[in-house]
Amino acid sequence: MTSMGGLEDLGLLVIASLVPALIYLSWIRTSERYRSEPWGTVLSLFFWGALIATFVAGILEVILVSVSTAASQRYPAPEFSFLNGNSTAGAFFLVLVLAPVVEEGLKALGVSRYKERITQIADGPVFGASVGLGFGFFETFLYGLGAFATGGLAAGLTLIFIRSISSVLLHGSSTAMFGYGYAASKVERKGWAAGAYYLLAVLMHASFNVLASLGALASALGIHGPIGTYADGLGLVLAIAFALAAINHVVNVIHRSTFPSADGTPSRYRPPPAVTHATLARRSPSSPRNPGQP
Questions:
Q1: pTM for this entry
Q2: Alpha carbons 195 and 201: distance in angstroms, whole number
Q3: CB–CB of 251/268 below 8 Å?
């Protein structure tokens, strides 16, 4: 393979990872239909998630796994085996507990950096989805790059496609829900909401990882037969369904937050009532005005 061919393949991997995430970002942005956020704001959030949160999460996870592995080797007790990153239990602890807690925390930090721009509830899930989609984009690119290195371009693009309809949506959805809670804590002074919705984001992330790891879990638990044989495929289908349902829920949350009143008009931006001939007559100086009239 020539260096030029390698660069072209790398460019394809970047485009294949980036384009779906940007399409989702545009969809989420326009879901706040009354007053869409400026592209500069959502792109800034997007690339913060991609270039800051992803790298810092990777570094923190490596450090935490190294420390916990060293601790489990220093104190070799069965109840601490899950701390050993080289064990099966340790691998599941990383995927199901450590990664969701660390990654959702860093993505939440990205949302909180823009707190001054959150002026209504709908801003929160839009900001959260922007950070999460950025994180999902770059993580997907890195996974695709790894698959490309071991299996070639087709393997890399296939993995990117699968993650683009699953993991990318999950990252956007989970952080969007934190953003909703964070906005509620800021706009409506619900102090408990940010923490509660952070835990919800972690739970969503962990639940998705359980589904995506269904085949590995079945193997680790010694489940064989038809269930074990089809666990990987079933887990993938369920993970994609979970991610699609989550992003659809986020869009509905944005719609409800933007249009909370019964008539579909944002309660904070309700226009004044239309002026009619009857109204003008009531307000005419020649007409007596009762104290109760507007």
A1: 0.84
A2: 10
A3: no
